[in-house]
Amino acid sequence: MTRSTAADPHAPASPERPAGIAGIDHHFRTIAELAGDIAFSIELPAHTLRYLSPAFSVLLGHEAGALQAAITGGGAHEALGALGLHLAAQGGLAPGERRVQEVDVRNADGHPVGLQVITTVVRNADASRSLVGLLRDLSAQRAHLADQLRFASMLNHEFRTPLATIDGAIQRLEATAQGADDTVRQRYRKIAVAADRLIAMLDEYLSPDRMAAIGQVRQPNTIAARDLLDVGVKQLREAGREAVVDAEQLRLGLRGEPEGLRLALKVLVDNALLYSPAGSKVTLGARRSGNGVEFTVRDEGAGVPPEDAACIFDKGYRGSNATGLPGSGLGLYMARSIVDVHGGMLRLGEGGKEFRLWLPALDINGQQQLASSSPNSDNRTDH
What we know:
Layout: H1 20-33, E1 38-44, E2 48-52, H2 55-60, H3 64-72, H4 81-89, E3 98-106, E4 112-123, E5 129-137, H5 139-175, H6 182-205, H7 208-216, E6 222-224, H8 225-238, E7 243-247, E8 253-255, H9 258-274, E9 282-289, E10 292-299, H10 331-341, E11 345-348, E12 354-360
Helix pairs in contact: 3-4, 5-6, 5-7, 8-9, 9-10
């Protein structure tokens, strides 16, 4: 004979026999914790900790009681004080409002641990409210960022030292080249311009100040389509070229890393400046295309020779019209790689005088539509 007892609605349901609301709660907690996150539930307005994943003690070495004390402020554990204060303050959220915050705590051994705290308030069946959410360990993410910063610093140093040597040497050669012929002086100038360009790129993308700022400030993951177009317009005007804009009134956002998208467009504009006559116009376009936005960059040069069209996005490839011009053959390869990562497409337009850059836009639900499920586009020949 089996005796039935009243179930505690706040107690975790049995993994073997989840049932009713308790079973649903158990399932959702299990799903939330599959990725290693720590789930919690705090009853409001008393701020009573009703559920905390066992992974909390595994990660930090503190028991649930220490967190409860930190939340209520009664003998708050110093190591968890910042987390307790933050959770206590989130009780005022409107139901359904989502808050994401990074909080630093210390584990039982006194070592710092960064946590991403994701919270929201939900209404319970009895009309009461609970603060629920996840704690996410940021240790791996922060270690990865630190590795990136060290690598960028190393690259900056390793490139800047020889570039400074080249720059100093070419300045000396130019200063003492009174007897040199025009061909030699032109070669000196090309070397100087190339060195200046590389040093400017180091300053723009790998300077210590810039890398430090990236590490300290949460980076945006969207950019307005019009803002991206304006980057190209500014680049052209700074180069002394007339920028012709042929664009719709776009009020669409693009999901992605803004600096990467700007760099991809910059490569296309650089290409237009390099391969078109000085003083000629460059036309930038933008229009809605399917679930995204198609940007175009068109110049008045001779265009990409037909025999080069199938290879211009290959790593290290330089076209037959690139003789005597600066470059490494990596710009278009890099631009297409960036676009691929963002689910877009980059191709050569008709006549070889135009590049077409398609990027998925955000719809009204904030979702991104990808161009296709095609494999990586290295060495693709569509144009």
